[in-house]
């Protein structure tokens, strides 16, 4: 042990005296929180997959998610609305990265502008989801109620709607908290809190959370709408 | 200190460039996913559909890699930090395999040993509209 000194080899074992992961405490803990959250969402999606694999029939997503706002009743436009939602989330993720980058450069104006764009993207996504839920509800779908038949024309169970509303609802709640966190970040930026601190590391942590929300949507989108 | 600490401070022009490059990659991957999704609608063969679904899942994992690696900046962190996050997530490989296998096995066992249940799931229902409209008229 005594032969290994701090100066001997920087890539070897950690010798103390500095942050082992070279990140601040809050950011590291945000990563571990997101990891635990990934297991929660993973458990939801795997449970959905297990039930789907154990069922003889399952509704065809292209028949269920085929409507579009302001389009005439009975329009057949599968995947169109949800792809718009997907792109909204990707773009809001990009503006969040730009806000984090601007924070690193201590560019308050750019942080404010990109945070506002991110918040708008988040609200747009939530509005889309609210419309979709409302539309499905008007068709008779809700927890415990499934008006859609299986793809092969047999009677379906309520598993489909239960999982859909639970998982997209849990994700939507994450988006909602992300928007609230981003609004708080915006207010703190406008109050010059970060300028006084001398760094914008808080924006980085909020950014991690926001990207995670986008990441989860990648999985939810694929599992519910595409496959 | 280390090479990754320097990577954090690479010049701002290249950082912005990288962001737009990753954005383009994510958009292209999403568009390919959507094309595959639209293409799959017209295909009857169950095994071919399964192959397309497999490709969509691979594209999904690629998208996840780009979001976590570049947007969340994990690729530029120290290797030890990356490992403490990625290694526990490797549990998902077994988690997914075991549960999907279990679900499939449950379906097969029930279909074999519970013929009544199987017959119930094979009864075709009339069209959606007829079910909706049929209810009030029956009352």
Overview of this protein structure:
- The complex is a heterodimer of chains A (227) and B (139).
- Chain A is mainly alpha-helical and 227 residues long.
- Chain A has one domain: Cytochrome c oxidase, subunit III, four-helix bundle (Four Helix Bundle (Hemerythrin (Met), subunit A), Up-down Bundle).
- Helices cover 67% and strands 0% of the residues of chain A.
- Chain A has helices at residues 25-53, 61-64, 80-104, 108-138, 159-190, 193-197, 201-226.
- In chain A, α4 runs antiparallel to α5.
- Chain A is globular, with a radius of gyration of 22 Å.
- With 139 residues, chain B is mostly helical.
- Chain B folds into two domains: 1-78; 90-139, no CATH class.
- Helices cover 81% and strands 0% of the residues of chain B.
- Chain B has seven helices and no strands.
- Classes of the chains: A mainly alpha (227), B mainly alpha (139).
- Chains A and B meet through α1, α3 and α7 of A and α2, α3, α4, α5 and α7 of B.
Sheet with the most strands, sense and barrel status of chain B: none
Enumerate the spans of chain B where pLDDT stays under 50 for 5 or more consecutive residues: 1-8, 130-139
> What is the number of E strands of chain B?
0
Oligomerization = heterodimer
The most extensive interface between chains reads:
A-B, 58 and 57 residues
What's the CATH topology name of chain A?
Answer: Four Helix Bundle (Hemerythrin (Met), subunit A)
| Strand percentage of chain A | under 5%
Distance between the termini of chain B: 79 Å
Could you list some keywords that capture this structure?
heterodimer, A: 227 residues, mainly alpha, Four Helix Bundle (Hemerythrin (Met), subunit A), 67% helix, globular, B: 139 residues, 2 domains, 7 helices, 81% helix, disordered N terminus, disordered C terminus
């Amino acid at each position: 042990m005594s032969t290994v000194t701090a100066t001997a080899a920087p890539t070897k074992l950690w010798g103390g005296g500095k942050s082992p992961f070279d990140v601040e405490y809050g950011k590291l803990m945000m990563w571990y929180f997101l990891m635990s959250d990934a297991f929660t969402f993973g458990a939801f999606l795997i449970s959905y997959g297990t039930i789907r694999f154990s069922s003889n029939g399952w509704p065809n997503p292209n028949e269920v998610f085929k409507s579009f706002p302001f389009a005439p009743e009975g329009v057949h436009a599968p995947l169109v609305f949800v792809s718009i939602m997907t792109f909204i989330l990707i773009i809001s993720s990009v503006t969040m990265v730009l806000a984090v980058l601007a924070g690193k450069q201590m560019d308050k104006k750019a942080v404010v502008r990109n945070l506002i764009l991110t918040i708008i993207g988040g609200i747009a996504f939530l509005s889309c989801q609210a419309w979709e839920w409302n539309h499905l509800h008007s068709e008779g779908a809700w927890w415990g109620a499934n008006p859609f038949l299986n793809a092969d024309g047999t009677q379906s169970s309520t598993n489909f709607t239960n999982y859909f509303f639970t998982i997209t609802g849990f994700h939507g709640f994450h988006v909602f908290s992300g928007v609230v966190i981003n609004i708080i970040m915006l207010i703190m930026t406008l109050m010059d809190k970060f300028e006084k601190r001398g760094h914008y590391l808080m924006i980085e942590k909020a950014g991690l959370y926001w990207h995670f929300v986008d990441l989860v949507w990648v999985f939810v989108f694929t599992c519910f709408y595409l496959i | 200190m280390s090479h990754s600490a320097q990577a954090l401070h690479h010049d701002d022009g290249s950082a912005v460039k990288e962001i737009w490059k990753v954005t383009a990659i994510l958009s292209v991957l999403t568009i390919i996913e959507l094309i595959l999704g639209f293409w799959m609608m017209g295909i009857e063969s169950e095994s071919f559909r399964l192959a397309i679904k497999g490709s969509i899942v691979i594209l999904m994992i690629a998208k996840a890699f780009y979001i976590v690696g570049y947007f969340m900046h994990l690729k530029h962190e120290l290797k030890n930090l990356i490992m403490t996050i990625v290694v526990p997530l490797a549990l998902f490989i077994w988690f997914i395999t075991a549960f999907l296998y279990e679900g499939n096995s449950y379906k097969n066992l029930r279909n074999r040993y519970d013929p009544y249940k199987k017959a119930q799931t094979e009864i075709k229902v009339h069209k959606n509209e007829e079910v909706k409209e049929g209810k009030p008229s029956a009352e």
